[in-house]
Amino acid sequence: MHPLGSVFLQTFCSLLQQKDFRQLELSRLLTRLAHRVAFRFRASGAAFRGKKEMPCLVSRMTREAFPFAEPGSSPQAH
Predict the structure, then answer these.
(1) d(CA 75, CA 19)
(2) Nearby residues of 11 by Cβ (< 8 Å), 6 or more positions away
(3) Region for 35 from its dihedrals, namely left if φ exceeds 0, alpha if ψ lies in -120 to 50, beta otherwise
(4) What does DSSP assign to residue 45?
(5) Stretch (H or E) spanning 34
(6) For each of the chain's 78 residues, which pLDDT tens digit applies?
């Protein structure tokens, strides 16, 4: 990963490159994204001492959304 890039966005793009993750419902995908960022990355530098900024996922959606699923595929609804 590029050292100056956003860890969140780079991880999001890497998840979307994997077919299994593209089939997930949006809130599940974002939860897995937050988990991966939380457990694979740590801030560097003496001022941060390993602290992180994490997204707060809030949704008012009333239906499942599969924005990255391939047309004609059966998404993993749960």
Answers:
(1) 11
(2) 33, 36, 37, 40, 41
(3) alpha
(4) S
(5) helix 26-40
(6) 567 778 889 999 999 999 889 999 999 999 999 999 888 887 777 777 767 777 788 889 999 999 998 887 766 655
